Amino acid sequence: MKYQKLFLARKARKITQADIAVYLKISQTQYHKREVGKIEISVAEWLGISKLLGVSLEEIYEPYTISSSKNYADLQQEIEALKQQLRNLKKDRA
């Protein structure tokens, strides 16, 4: 769970993801992606959510950071592999 404070505040108030999605005028799937950190929550959305939940922004806000199940070394290895593929493609085009 990416936004633990948001999740706990929402659950404590018995508000569903669908409820927040309707309020934000987005799909439940889109809201879910925000709550789990796959999509960044905008400032306007944070403000709307805090208003709907009846809490201060500080009570639920957590900064967005890119999360991944892969570690840094794995990502670096993938980047190097992609760079090699790009070099090969450029060489083939020449």
TrEMBL record:
Residues forming coiled coils: 65-92
Domain of life: Bacteria
SUPFAM superfamilies recorded: lambda repressor-like DNA-binding domains
Signal peptide start and end residues: none
Record's protein name: HTH cro/C1-type domain-containing protein
UniProtKB keywords: Coiled coil
Organism of this sequence: Chryseobacterium hagamense
GO molecular function, one term: DNA binding
Keyword Coiled coil: yes
Cited InterPro entries: Cro/C1-type_HTH (IPR001387), Lambda_DNA-bd_dom_sf (IPR010982)
Pfam families named in the record: HTH_3
Domain HTH cro/C1-type, first and last residues per copy: 9-60
